[in-house]
Amino acid sequence: MGAVDLLVDGVVRGGTARWVYGGSMLLCLALAGWLGLGRRVGRWETFGLVLLGDLGYVVVTRCLEDPVRHASPLMLLFPAFVAAWFCESWMLAVHMVATVGACLAALEPSYDSALELGVQVGVDATVLNAASAGVHVLRRRVQRLLRATQALSHQDPLTGLANRRLLVEQAPRVWRQARREGSRVAAMVLDLDHFKQLNDAHGHAVGDAVLRAVAASLSATVRPSDVLARVGGEELVVLGLVSDPAEAQRLAERLRSAVAAGRTDDGHSVTASIGIALVSPVDGEDAADAVWRLIDRADGAMYEAKQAGRDRVAAALPRPRTAPEWEEATPAGGSA
Known about the structure:
This protein is α+β, with helices and mostly antiparallel strands. It has 11 helices and 6 strands.
């Protein structure tokens, strides 16, 4: 719209100022076209564009006959809002200082009195900076809300562990890593023994405390790359990479010992029956579907551990396959 001023008499100064004004409008069009191509703009590029907008405003006002009438400082609202929403706090602070300078440089030719100039610059800069500060505070609150919402959607509220949704979202990463490293994916299903009887005898508050104690103990035991999730009332799943069944067995035994070692402040504890299933990911399979097939096989092995006496590990041993790896549940030892 600013280019229209070139066609109106008495708005843009003549001579060099007219050429500078026209060049500024062309630069704005070029930047708009560059952004319109869908180019991804980073944090530093955004900061640079904001400062360029401040500078561009000063240049444009210097080319006008009456800057107060034809180029109000409110034109700086756009770069102010961009800085408030997309830039970091220190970048916004720099922009606020630049806003004061831009208002001063733009309005100075229109005022003979330093006092009047100072008052007008103070009013305009305060309005602009207050607006950008408000938007920045709003943005930070929205970000905190989004982080909290994401945490609620990915975490079990009682134990703080991952939930089913996050377990499924992590499956593609685990599958890719397994194919890249030539590893196997191990799913371990843990079910707390006699947990219902514990709840019935001592109440749900004690049951919740036991679950939190078990979650803390398991979190300290699993490896950093493993995914530990609560998928049911007293059922947990560990998803990770292993080189062979022996490694999976050793990890499962550590998890079983960790569950037994976890105690509440009142001394309550439980044991766990654990089922293991392994698979070698293949190209083209859907990781989200494959992980649940794997968990189902580990769940079957977990029931074998229950039937064999609880507080033990049972492994679903693989059979030869040409498609998905079907596995047969057999007890793999443990303590009664």
